[in-house]
Amino acid sequence: MPTPTSSRSTLGVAPAGRAAATPIAFVRAIVAAYTRYGLNPAGALRQAQIAPQRLHEIDGHITAAQFEALSAHAMQELDDEALGWFGRRLPWGSYGMLSRASVTAPTLGVALKRWCRQHRLLTDDVLLHLESDTTRATLRIEERRALGELREFCLVTLLRYLHGFACWAIDSRIALARVDFPFAAPAHASVYPLLFPGPVRFGAGAAGFRFDAQYLALPLVRDEVATRAMLQRALPLVVLQYRRDRLLLQQVRQALAAHPAQTRNADDLAALLHMSARTLHRHLHDEGASLQALKDEVRCERARALLQRSARPVKQVAAATGFRNEKSFIRAFRQWTGMSPGEFRAGLGR
Asked: Tens digit of pLDDT for each residue in 8-26?
């Protein structure tokens, strides 16, 4: 997929296996930019090894590498990294400037606010907004003028830029709770799950995506050297999607604690976290953790709290922590703490 931050590419899609998955519709959008500037796209198409007749394919696809070559050539030839989206050109290096200005921020939240604010120096045709509360953060695009036939390409790419930069800056996969677009599902809607790691909704009021607000507090881990290397060739940053999620363990613990009845198995827990059970297990393995160990940790914390703060019988505490009978709870509690629930309570009174 594209690199969100570099001036080298925009929206290539590379699924596992590197099959051609980038829609020809995105190629036609770049050709439309050439038309807008009165220039011939033949050189860019030739550079990307895309035959002109392929532009007429209804459901055609090219590879991410082809799209990177096409967009990089077009951005330089048109001297417009926005590829015709806005009322004025964004000269080559514009998004690299945003990356450098944002990467010195202490946290992701500050970095994204800088990105949104400084994007206004490039254009006011669209405004980028970061909004958050204690649980959810939302990046939203406000359209200030009609974007015409390039609307989809513009909105999708801007969100890819923001999400890609955020993941790269904190070295973490950022799952998206929801991705919104203010247009009907296009013919190539099947590609959107490859572009965005979260459920996509078409026909929304505005383009944007939502994610866990806790990511905003994470510190950035990149410096100028890393930024320079990324800007030279950032395609792999998006093609090779991040396996690591620096908040995953915390999110799993919170889900287990807040929804005990809905997280009895991996499938239900994964659904709450907007991923497959297989992906959940793989990410936990990458973090050196297991679902059973996290379940035990959360159960133990809840059991200790109930034993300490209430006078509930042990049988009720067992049921409240997800055990079917008192005997199995007592056995598990002894494994966790080295003592029985009764011994734990007796020790509190010493």
From this structure: 444 555 544 456 788 999 9
